[in-house]
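can u do me a favor
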């Protein structure tokens, strides 16, 4: 049976965080039909086993991929595996406050095509650290030629299925899939809503210098895409 909303949780070594995240989603989505897609890159900590266990209590679908294939491709895999009309992406480390989900659902009712959970309209945990905060601000500044929203690097966002389906070819470089959707959906109606970005409870961040390099490569590809299509995104 097709549901209206699907929440995609890309996972890699998030066994210690997954239950709390799934329970928070369940509380936030209790008044709507929803499903959760856990897309796991064969986590060494066996996150996929925790997902199977949670599937006895929650509407969870598990996709276990053979190896670490990257966050962006995990999100797209979840999007395309679900048949839901509204697709939501969240990190599986507990840093995104699930209480924003009803707000996103409400924004769909107001005509939004994409809703972004913005850290810069909300707040960020002090435990996040000055280094990561600075890196995030620099990355956001580098994205300014492609979109004018405040937090295009957010990993917490919702999008209508038709926008995902109209993207014929995905770059899927690095871990910032939202920016690709924004670049390739220039006429989309986009709203940002504030979120609290907390500290992860277990495990470590996936951000490293390799991901920084991959992000720069992604921006270069977007620059070429912009020239080829001779257009700029027109987000509100």
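np, heres the sequence
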């Amino acid at each position: 049976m097709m549901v209206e909303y699907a929440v995609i949780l890309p996972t890699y070594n998030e066994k210690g965080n997954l239950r709390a995240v799934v329970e928070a989603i369940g509380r936030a989505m209790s008044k709507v039909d929803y499903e959760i897609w856990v897309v796991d890159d064969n986590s060494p900590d066996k996150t996929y086993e925790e997902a199977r266990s949670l599937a006895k209590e929650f509407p969870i679908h598990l996709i276990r991929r053979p190896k670490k294939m990257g966050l962006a491709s995990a999100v797209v895999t979840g999007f395309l595996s679900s048949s839901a009309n509204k697709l939501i992406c969240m990190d599986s480390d507990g840093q995104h406050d699930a209480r924003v989900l009803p707000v996103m659902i409400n924004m769909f009712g107001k005509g939004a095509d994409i809703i972004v959970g913005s850290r810069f309209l909300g707040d960020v945990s002090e435990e996040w650290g000055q280094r990561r905060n600075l890196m995030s601000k620099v990355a956001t500044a580098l994205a300014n030629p492609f979109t004018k929203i405040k937090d295009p690097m957010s990993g917490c966002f919702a999008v209508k299925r038709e926008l995902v389906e109209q993207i014929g070819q995905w770059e899927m470089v690095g871990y910032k899939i939202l920016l690709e959707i924004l670049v390739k959906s220039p006429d989309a109606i986009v709203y940002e809503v504030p979120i609290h970005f907390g500290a992860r409870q277990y495990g470590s961040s996936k951000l490293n210098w390799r991901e920084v390099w991959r992000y720069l490569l992604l921006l270069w590809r977007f620059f070429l895409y912009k020239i080829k299509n001779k257009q700029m995104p027109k987000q509100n």
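Strands lie at 5-11, 34-40, 60-64, 86-89, 114-124, 157-160, 190-197. hope that helps!!
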